[in-house]
Structures are given as structure tokens and as C-alpha cells.
Design a protein that fits this description.
The complex is a heterotrimer. By secondary structure, chain A is mainly alpha-helical. Chain A has twelve helices and no strands. The longest helix of chain A has 36 residues, at 56-91. Chain A starts with 16 loop residues before the first helix and ends in a 9-residue tail after the last helix. Chain C is globular. Chain C is an all-alpha fold. Classes of the chains: A mainly alpha, B alpha/beta, C mainly alpha. Chains A and C meet through α1, α3, α4, α8 and α9 of A and α2, α3, α4, α5 and α7 of C.
């Protein structure tokens, strides 16, 4: 109080600028690095298109294959995920739900090479060798679904958890049974999240490499005919194959950009649908 | 009339297109408690925040006019904002202690301003807690988490936290918000004590509280300052119709 | 008195010099001994980590863990700096949202795309002999966007009232970050970092791409567990060997453990506070 008159309100800025300058530099460098990654891809892709170093037919076919396989995986995994999420949150007893949640979270970290390994084992043990020519989208989608299922489930569990208890309470107070509450209160509340999870699942499956690559090699070893049908030629596979062939095939960048666009498209669609309307409710 | 600690000249605050304060002119007297009253949305919080440049933290806020602290402009280009905020400390409506121990909460401010000596910190914490009327309740559990305190104690802890930086002006936004009458009475006692030492400005919705605690009253309505004067005068003989209606609880 | 020498000071400085010299030489000697004693084991460790051919699964596992750790430590400071900058120093507006959603999109890109960065930009630059470095750099480029988003959200999760109260006590922006925000964002950041490590550490695709830069090289990066599994699965006549199962098990265990650790950290990282509408988080 007594010093109030002596101390001027106007004091010059303290020496606090240094950390901010450092932060700014770090941020600028990092963001530029990330931008460089994108620029590298786009530059390569544009070059490929300009110099006509791009096999349009192959690229489009690969993209189509990728999409079909990924969509298949999402279609297989999604119903399972929805049922699991609802079971974990609404039906299972708390301790069981907790255990299941931990298991699901753990499963979602399983590397795709391991899924591919399982796929190979299945191929060799449960299908006769002659039938390998029937290695179809369905088989690959099945294993991709295995890979995508835990992450979709844990995503949905989190969304179901966010539904306010008041919603369920309201349903129960109107005399609804548990089952009716799930069907008429819980399920409609996560409808858009289910669609979002579907998109995110496709986005995740579309870029998978190891599973398909391993299945491809396993199939090729047994019957080359299965591979020549090029049904498994997805974008990531095409990228890996081309990378082995030549030092600088430009088409590879075009494929990568296409893959990036697909992945970005699906993940951003998923994220925009994932908006949570429950802010601030109990 | 006493000397003025803070002088507000033509202060207007806009949030986007919405004008929250309409060219307020006000002199806040030194060493007294000034209550800012008015219905919610009248601009009480905006006024308090504008007095210590906290309103700058809100999105697309625009401030026009001047606020003078001891005759010096606080919105000037070369002013160190942190210095202004240290000298004019705002205690927000929702008292949230940091999730640290009681001691660390109070010592937070002094530590920021470079006090590292343990004995000095001890002394500051003790004095601040005493002034906030909390010392006797917490002196044996200074190292416990502040989150376990009751709401009333949290409110007083936040007051202690602000006192610890030795401000010249204390701005308190609704000190008894959401408190039960007993806790509220304790907080009011603290404010009565504090006004001996600090220039105090507090916003409140309660006429009784303004009457009990404040020396001066500023009545805001829809962002404009309707009336300002010594509490006894304003409460006994309001000059403006709106003030009278508000104080007596008549609304047409 | 003017000419007389302060004998006390002279003696003092002589004593100080002798003491300093003695202590210094002693310290140097100790340091030499420590270096001498620890150098062989350190070298052995380094040799173990950077050797190009894998022998036992355990050593492959340890090496890939070390490389993952190196990639994380490389990416983490940059990511934290950028995250803090984006969260605390930029205005909450469209531009920031755009940058953030792009970074998040980059983080969700398929791993092959990052492999392509390693293959196309890093591999030609560093050459065949520094394959390990290329792989580590590729992994850290992949981790970078994930960790930036993690650091950003770890800061944004902290209630605004923390910033408000700290600033109201006269703290500068940097002090607020250092003393009020960082202590409470650490857990969430650590959790998300572990999740990123689980993802990156288990993924074979980037390594496959980098290895594809030198398809005929004898120095295939077999010291990285997912690639090792992939490679030996492709080459094996019978995939169902104990060694493959062991590698897969190690891979799963590592990833799942990272994920579970992240889950534990996440659960206890909540702080109470006020979320004030309109108050910007920066």
C-alpha cells in the first residue's frame, strides 16, 4: 500500500520473451517439416502426372481394391463393435465391463504383422491348397476386420459412456424396460457415432499394408495363380511393390497421395460425425 | 470523498457486436469497499475484469476508454500486464484452487514473483491465511490437497492466494456465490477485515450484503452506470428511479 | 597502507588454487576411471543395438525397443514445443483449427506413407550404411504429428480457470504454462505418447518401405521386431515355427503393455476446474 505512490504502473516488459521465441522457432521448424512431407508427396505426384509416368489403370484399380477391402472390413467389424460396445456399457456387470474394456483397449494395440501372421496360419491350416485361388476380398476383409474391430469397439464404448445418465433415467422413469431403453434411448443417441466409427474403420483399414502383404506372399508361395488375379493389389501393396522395383518410380507418389486423400477423407468424415452433443450434462 | 485509487473514464467493453459496458465513468475510492450491484448480465463481471485487464482473455473482446491506476493508464502500449494484474488482483466467481497443497496454493503467487526463501514463504502464507480467516482451520494440514476443503474454505483460500501477491486493489467477483449462509457470513467477515488494508471492489447480487459490507455502491443496469455514491446515501435516497426499484425489489 | 599487500587474500587465493587444482585433477582421474570402466559395456550395448543381423529374439526385441525410444525422444521435444505454441500462443480461430485438423489427419495417415518419406527423402540422403538412422528418423516423423496433437490436447484438457487464476495473480504467459499447465498435462501427454509408441513400434510397413530402398542389400534391418517377423514369415517354408510364435508374442506383449500403461495413466489424469464459455484457451 505505502509503495503505491512510488511505483509506476508503467514498467517495461520483463525478460520473459526468450521461451516464447524458442517455442516459436520450434513450432515453425516442426510445422515446416510436416509441410515438407506433404509437399514431397504432392510434388512427386504432380511430376508423375505431368511426365506421364503413371499407370492410371493400375492406380485406379488399386484404389478400388483398397476401398472394397476396407469397406468390407468395416461392414464386418461394425455390427460386432456396436453390439460389444452396448453390451459392455449397458448390460455387463461393472467388473466384467471393466475387464472387457481393458482387454479391448489392449487388443486395439495388436500390430498388423501379427494379424497377418494369424492370417497365414489360417490360410495354411484351414483351407485346402487348391482352394487358394479363391483368396478373395472376403478373406482379406475378414482379417482386416479382426484388426479394426478392437479400435472401433473402444471408440464406441467411449461414445456410449458419454451419453448422460439423465437420458437413461428419463427412459426408465417413463416405464421403459432395460431392453427398451437400449433400443429407444441409447441406440438412437449413438447413431451418428456408429456411422462415424464406420468411416474411421474404413480409414484405418484402407492404409493397411502388413496384413495384405503377408497374405499375398503366403498365397503366392502356394499357388501363383491366386496372385496373378491381382485382386489383392491395394494401394499400399502397389506402393511397396513399386518401391522394390526401381529407385525413383514417380507413380508411387501419385499412389501415396491418393492413399492420403482417401485416408484423410474417411477420417475427417468420421471425426466430423463424432461430434458429441452431451457437453455439460450429467 | 476520499482519494481515488482507480479512475475509470468512458470505459466501454464489447464482446463482438454486443456492448457489455456503456462508457462508464467511475472513481473507485482508496481504502474503501465498493460494491458493484445490478442484475445478472448488467456488466458487473465485465467491469471487474476490465479493471485488471483480465477481459483480454475473452474472445473477440474490445475495450475502449481509460482505466487509471494511481493516475496511470493501464491500457497503455508499454504497460506490463502481469504487473497490473499483480497490483490489481481479481478473485473469480468460481473459486477453484489449484490441485496442489494448501501451502502451495497460497505460495503460488509469491513464487511466481521470485520469492524462493522458504522462511519468507512460510511467513507470507501464514499472514495471507490469517488475513483470509483460514489460518486456524488449516494450520495443521497445510500440506494437504486444497481440493478437500469445503466450498466456503475454498473461497477464502482463493482470497488468501490473491492476498499473497500483495496487491493494492482486490477485485472480488461475487464472493459468496453458491455458498451457504454460514460460510457466506465468514467470507463477509473476511471482507470487512480486508477493507481496512486494501482497496476493495466486489460484485454482488445481494442487497443486504452490499449494505452490510460496502462503503460505496455502484449500480449498473444494462451496461450503464446508473448511480454511484456512498452506500448509506444510495440506499436511503436513491436519485434514480431504476436504483430505487432495484433496491426495493420492485420491477415493473 | 596503499602499497601493502593483503596477505590474507593472497593466502586465500593460493589455497583456493591448490584446492581447485587438487579437486579438479582428482575429479578428472575419477572420470577417466569411470569412462574406462564403463566404456566396454557401453560399447557392447551400442553394438547390440546397432548390429544389423539378429541372432536371438531377445536381442532383436531390446534393439527395437531402444530404436523406438530413440525415435520418441527425438520427436517429443519438437512435438511438445509445437503443441504448447499452438495451444497457448495462437488465437483460437479458423486457421488454428485448420492446422490442427491437418496435423491430426497426418497423424492418422497410413504407415506406408511415412515409409515412403523414409524411402524417398531420407534413404537416398543418408545412404545404405545408415539404414538404422533412416528408420529411426522415419518413425519419429510419423510420431511427430501424433505427439503434437497429444501435447495440444493435453494442454486443452486443463480447465480454463487454471489459466485465468494464474494470470490474475500476475503470472506471465510462460509462467502460467510452466507452473500451472505443464504439471497437469504431463500424465495425459505420457499416456498418448505411449499409445503412439505402441502403434509405431508394432508397425512393419515403414521399415518394409525403407528396406525396399535397398532390395538387394545384405544389411536388411532385421533387428527391428515387426520387420523381422514379416521378413522371416515371407521367407519361411513353414510359418508355424516356435520362433515366429515367439516373435509375435513379444510384439503383442510390448504393444499391449504400452497400451495398458497408457490406459492407467489416462484414468488418473483428471483435474477439476471451471470451463468458462468464451474464455479462450491461450
Amino acid at each position: 500500500m505505502e509503495s503505491a505512490k512510488e511505483k509506476p504502473a508503467v514498467t517495461y516488459l520483463k525478460f520473459t520473451v526468450l521461451p516464447e521465441v524458442i517455442l516459436q522457432l520450434v513450432a515453425a521448424a516442426t510445422l515446416m517439416m510436416l509441410a515438407a512431407v506433404v509437399v514431397l508427396m504432392i510434388k512427386g505426384a504432380v511430376n508423375a502426372v505431368i511426365t506421364r509416368n503413371l499407370d492410371f489403370g493400375l492406380t485406379l484399380a488399386a484404389a478400388l481394391n483398397s476401398l472394397l477391402i476396407a469397406a468390407g472390413a468395416a461392414v464386418i467389424a461394425l455390427p460386432l463393435s456396436v453390439v460389444s460396445a452396448i453390451y459392455i456399457n449397458e448390460l455387463a456387470r461393472p467388473r466384467l465391463a471393466e475387464a472387457l474394456w481393458i482387454v479391448i483397449r489392449g487388443l486395439s494395440a495388436i500390430p498388423s504383422v501379427v494379424i497377418g501372421f494369424i492370417g497365414i496360419l489360417w490360410l495354411l491350416h484351414h483351407s485346402r491348397l487348391q482352394e487358394l485361388s479363391s483368396l478373395t476380398f472376403f478373406h482379406v476383409s475378414l482379417f482386416l476386420a479382426l484388426m479394426v474391430y478392437p479400435s472401433l469397439t473402444s471408440l464406441l464404448v467411449e461414445q456410449v459412456r458419454r451419453i448422460p445418465t439423465s437420458l437413461r433415467a428419463a427412459s426408465y422413469s417413463l416405464g421403459a424396460s432395460r431392453w427398451q431403453t437400449i433400443v429407444y434411448a441409447v441406440y438412437p443417441a449413438i447413431k451418428s457415432c456408429i456411422a462415424a466409427a464406420g468411416f474411421l474403420g474404413v480409414g484405418k483399414a484402407v492404409g493397411d499394408t502388413a496384413v495384405i502383404l503377408l497374405l499375398w506372399h503366403a498365397a503366392a508361395k502356394v499357388s501363383p495363380a491366386a496372385v496373378h488375379s491381382s485382386r489383392l493389389l491395394t494401394l499400399p501393396i502397389a506402393i511397396v511393390m513399386e518401391a522394390k522395383l526401381d529407385r525413383q518410380p514417380l507413380g508411387i507418389y501419385a499412389m501415396a497421395v491418393l492413399l492420403m486423400i482417401l485416408s484423410l477423407l474417411f477420417s475427417s468424415m468420421g471425426r466430423s460425425l463424432m461430434r458429441c452433443p452431451w457437453r455439460g450434462q450429467e | 470523498m476520499r482519494d481515488s485509487k482507480l479512475v475509470v473514464r468512458n470505459l466501454s467493453v464489447y464482446y463482438g457486436d454486443f456492448q457489455a459496458l456503456r462508457s462508464i465513468n467511475l472513481s473507485i475510492p482508496l481504502g474503501a469497499a465498493t460494491a458493484v450491484i445490478g442484475s445478472s448480465g448488467a456488466g458487473k463481471s465485465s467491469l471487474l475484469r476490465a479493471l485488471c485487464r483480465m477481459n483480454e482473455l475473452w474472445d473477440n473482446v474490445r475495450t475502449e476508454g481509460q482505466v487509471l491506476l494511481d493516475g496511470q493508464e493501464i491500457y497503455g502500449p508499454d504497460v506490463d500486464v502481469t504487473e497490473v494484474r499483480r497490483r490489481v488482483s481479481l478473485i473469480a466467481r468460481h473459486p477453484y484452487p489449484f490441485p496442489k497443497s494448501i501451502f502451495d496454493n497460497v505460495a503460488y503467487g509469491p513464487r511466481l514473483h521470485g520469492i524462493k526463501d522458504k522462511r519468507k514463504l512460510d511467513e507470507i502464507v501464514k499472514r495471507s491465511l490469517k488475513q483470509a480467516g483460514l489460518w486456524n482451520e488449516v494450520k495443521d494440514r497445510l500440506q494437504e490437497s486444497a481440493l478437500n476443503l469445503s466450498p466456503g474454505e475454498k473461497a477464502r483460500l482463493c482470497i488468501a492466494r490473491s492476498i499473497a501477491v500483495e496487491p493494492e486493489v482486490l477485485l472480488i467477483d461475487d464472493p459468496t456465490y453458491h455458498l451457504d449462509p454460514v460460510s457466506a457470513a465468514k467470507v463477509e467477515d473476511v471482507i470487512l477485515e480486508l477493507k481496512q488494508k486494501y482497496t476493495l471492489v466486489f460484485a454482488t447480487n445481494s442487497m443486504q450484503q452490499a449494505g452490510r459490507v460496502s462503503d460505496y455502491v455502484a449500480f449498473l443496469s444494462e451496461g450503464a452506470l446508473v448511480e454511484f455514491g456512498p452506500t448509506s446515501e444510495v440506499f436511503a435516497r436513491p436519485k434514480d428511479r431504476r436504483t430505487e426499484d432495484y433496491i426495493t425489489g420492485r420491477f415493473s | 597502507m596503499r602499497n601493502s599487500i593483503d596477505t590474507g587474500a593472497v593466502i586465500c587465493s593460493v589455497f583456493a588454487a591448490v584446492a581447485l587444482f587438487g579437486a579438479g585433477s582428482l575429479l578428472a582421474l575419477m572420470g577417466y576411471l569411470v569412462l574406462k570402466g564403463l566404456w566396454p559395456p557401453m560399447r557392447a550395448l551400442a553394438a547390440l543395438i546397432f548390429a544389423h543381423s539378429g541372432d536371438s529374439l531377445l536381442s532383436i526385441w531390446i534393439r527395437s525397443l531402444f530404436l523406438l525410444l530413440a525415435a520418441t525422444l527425438l520427436a517429443l521435444p519438437l512435438a511438445i514445443g509445437t503443441g504448447i505454441y499452438l495451444s497457448e500462443y495462437t488465437r483460437q480461430n479458423r486457421a488454428r483449427e485448420l492446422i490442427l485438423s491437418n496435423i491430426a489427419g497426418l497423424g492418422e495417415m497410413p504407415p506406408v506413407v511415412y515409409g515412403l518419406v523414409g524411402w524417398g527423402a531420407l534413404a537416398p540422403y543418408f545412404g545404405e550404411d545408415r539404414q538404422t538412422l533412416v528408420i529411426v528418423l522415419t518413425a519419429s516423423v510419423w510420431l511427430l504429428p501424433q505427439l503434437i496433437v497429444a501435447a495440444y490436447w493435453a494442454l486443452q484438457e486443463i480447465p480454463v480457470s487454471f489459466r485465468r487464476d494464474s494470470l490474475a495473480l500476475g503470472a506471465t504467459r510462460w509462467q502460467t504454462i510452466r507452473w500451472t499447465l505443464m504439471p497437469y498435462s504431463g500424465r495425459l501427454l505420457a499416456a498418448k505418447t505411449l499409445e503412439g509408441m505402441a502403434r509405431v513400434g508394432g508397425e512393419a510397413a515403414p521399415v518394409i518401405m525403407v528396406a525396399a530402398a535397398w532390395p538387394d542389400s545384405s544389411k536388411q534391418p532385421l533387428h527391428i521386431l515387426p520387420y523381422y517377423l514379416y521378413r522371416s514369415l515371407i521367407e519361411a517354408v513353414d510359418p508355424a515355427t516356435t520362433r515366429h510364435f515367439g516373435a509375435a508374442l513379444l510384439l503383442v506383449l510390448t504393444s499391449v503393455c504400452f497400451q495398458w500403461a497408457a490406459l492407467r495413466l489416462r484414468r488418473t489424469g483428471v483435474v477439476a476446474g471451471d470451463t468458462l464459455p468464451g474464455l479462450r484457451k491461450r
